[in-house]
Amino acid sequence: MGFVARFLVFMSLFTGLVSGFALQKLPLIQFDEGYTHLFGDQNLIVNRDGKSVRLILDERTGSGFVSNDIYLHGFFSSSIKLPADYSAGVVIAFYLSNGDIYEKNHDEIDFEFLGNIRGKEWRIQTNIYGNGSTHLGREERYNLWFDPTEDFHQYSIMWSHSHIIFYVDNIPIREVKRTASMGGDFPAKPMSLYATIWDGSKWATNGGKYGVNYKFAPYVAQFTDMILHGCAVDPIEKVLSCQDGAAEDLRLASEITESQRKKMDSLRRKHMTYSYCYDRTRYKVALPECVVNPEEAKRLRVYDPVTFGGIPHRHRHGKHRSKSRQSI
After folding, report:
1. What is this structure's pTM?
2. Rounded distance, CA 129 to CA 139, Å?
């Protein structure tokens, strides 16, 4: 079976893959088995258990890690605990990207955590890019309904050829459906998983009004219970392979249930503070995949204006250790 045929088989397995996995059944991996150091020298610390990692931002540098393999669709997850106290200007990103391979037309799927001044909560930003469409940001922002600095919480990305779903503690907070009108703006090329912490003083908090204050450093983000569950691609040999059990898990995966969708809709009404679909400063006409709700537009208007910034390009370059894979 050729690569294209194998690709189509596995794409069919991902069709409709938009609900939460039974997380307790997915394999957790050691850091060295799935990831490698990206940048930051000693500011990346692997704990003795080999499964937990601390990313540190101080006056010298931020830090980050990247998956050893490149994936074409899958489920990617980590439990994360964010820095406490004053965190304005600090950005922690958990995301998929192929900017190290496709510098001019990269794809990206982002979770970004935006720090804040003392007494104000962290915020989550989600975004997607396809085929270098960075001029068409599809950001959404949310206030958290818990304190992410007190304990670990699970953040997950489900990516198939037709859907992208963002989860917090296994509750979907955003569903992106691929539409014909999106064209190449939907991420479709193999990507690596990244996690980084860095200084986003120019934009992350109140449009850059509050920057990182290094007297509160070091800022430490903790990662554990990391999951890479999908199909890896050898970029040279073009061999596609799934981890043990992944194919069966994908066959059994179901779509978002009615109960999950009700939770997602309720959460978005209560906690979403920005959606690109309602930003008339950036887009005089809503992008074609948007379904505009006048009541939601009115509610979100009180949060304007919003300032954005991208993940620094240097954070998208990692070395991928080649692993032996069995062709499927």
Report:
1. 0.87
2. 10
96-97-100-103 Cα dihedral, nearest 10 degrees: 180
User: How far are the Cα atoms of 31, 202, 235, 259 from residue 90, in angstroms, in the given order?
Assistant: 24, 10, 33, 35
Please determine, for residue 251, whether its predicted confidence score (pLDDT) is greater than 90.
Answer: no
Q: What is the pLDDT of residue 321?
A: 41
pLDDT category of residue 10 using cuts at 50, 70 and 90: very low
Strands (E), 41-180: 44-46, 53-57, 63-67, 70-81, 90-97, 108-114, 123-129, 140-143, 153-159, 163-168, 171-177
* Element (DSSP H or E) covering residue 227: strand 219-233
Question: Which strands, in side-by-side order, build the sheet including 140-143?
Answer: 35-39, 63-67, 192-199, 90-97, 108-114, 123-129, 140-143, 272-275
pLDDT tens, residue by residue, 34-80: 999 999 989 999 999 999 999 999 999 999 999 999 998 899 999 99
Q: How far apart are CA 230 and CA 90, in angstroms?
A: 30
Distance, CA of 92 to CA of 57 (rounded, Å):
10
Kindly list the structural domains of the chain, giving each domain's residue range(s) and its CATH number in brackets, ordered by start: 31-303 (2.60.120.200)
Look at the block and give the residue holding tokens 């917090």.
168
Give the residue numbers annotated as catalytic, written as ranges. 108, 112
- Of 59, 25, 22, which is closest to residue 40 (Cα–Cα)? 59
The alpha carbon dihedral of 53, 56, 60, 66 has a sign of: positive
Which helix (H) or strand (E) segment holds residue 299: the answer is helix 294-300
Nearest C-alpha neighbor of 49 from the set 198, 222, 221: 222
